[in-house]
Amino acid sequence: MKRMAWTDVLYWLALPLVLLFALFPFVYAIASSFKRGNALFSSDFWPQTWSAANYVAVFAEQPFGQNLLNSVLVAGGVVLLSLSVSLLAAYALGRVTFRGRGLLMMTILGVSMFPQVAILSGLFELITWLGLYDSLWALVLSDLIFTLPFTVWVLVTFMRELPKELEEAALMDGAGVLTVIFRIFLPLLWPAVAATSLLAFIAAWNEFLFALTFTLSGEQRTVPVAIALISGASSYELPWGNIMAASVIVTVPLIVLVLIFQRHIVSGLTAGAVKG
User: Which residue intervals define the domain ABC transmembrane type-1 in the entry (predicted)?
Assistant: First the structure.
């Protein structure tokens, strides 16, 4: 019988602890979302009586359906614009040699290192000057500041690994640059595109500070702000049941997306690590 290595033993000992640490908050939110009244403060982990009243109240007491749609539109718009710009930028930075390319890459990376609050006032003036305040376009524009550098850096890494002979053959056959990028390179970059798209979507979906600052009306808010502003019947009441229900609703789409694209995520994040 083959003896297990000590690393395997540590792995199987650590796996339950990691799963418990990662999954417990979400499982607790699900259990709490089906509790009502004083049951929320009982010592029972699972509700004695399951009730969907919190989920009904979330949609009945505020425009949560519109908030969900706003988050989908903002996150989807950020992903589409990020990828459109990043693919072109990645080709220029990864396949074309020009003076100052390294400095430009470091500048792009440096932009993503600034905290949100450091650029908040200047960005607020820009949003107001463009007439985009209290609109979804304000959130799309502001989220691009942090998703675009990430997508550019990841795609540049993969763009450099593509065979140069493939590009030269396409150009010799009369293909233009856009044809090379979107018809030849894009299918090969699909794992990287899927991984960066999902990570950019999650970042835009969870963004809070810009969404809180640049939106005012309830119909223009995204779900993180809508959850933060859920209030009870009085200033002394915090509706934990509604908050837990809203948190579950917001988290489920992300889990579904990760499960659907998990194969592409893993291959996209590891394909460029080892050269064949």
Answer: 68-261
What is d(CA 268, CA 201) in angstroms, rounded to the nearest whole number?
16
Q: Are 100 and 107 in contact (CB under 8 A)?
A: no
What are φ and ψ of residue 215, in 5° steps? -125, 145
pTM of the model: 0.83
In this structure, is the dihedral angle defined by the CA atoms of residues 145, 150, 153 and 159, taken in order, positive or negative? negative
* Cβ-contact 148, 87 below 8 angstroms: no
CA distance linking residue 141 with residue 148, whole number of Å: 10
Q: DSSP secondary-structure letter at 162?
A: S
Tens digit of each residue's pLDDT (9 = 90 or more) over 146-179: 888 888 888 888 888 888 888 788 888 777 888 8
Whole-angstrom distance, CA of residue 156 vs CA of residue 176: 19
| Number of Cβ within a 10 Å radius of residue 2 | 4
In degrees, rounded to 5, the angle at the alpha carbon of residue 15 between the alpha carbons of residues 10 and 18 is 120
pLDDT at 14 over 80: yes
**Amino acid at position 228, single letter:** A
- C-alpha span between 165 and 170 (Å, rounded): 9
d(C-alpha 267, C-alpha 265), whole Å: 6
Three-class secondary structure of residue 131 per DSSP: coil
Which parts of the chain are beta strand (E)? none
Q: Note whether 202 and 71 are within 8 A (CB).
A: no
Question: pLDDT by residue (tens digit) across 220-272?
Answer: 899 999 998 887 666 667 788 888 899 999 998 888 888 887 776 665 555 54
Half-sphere exposure of 232 (CA within 13 A, CB side): 9
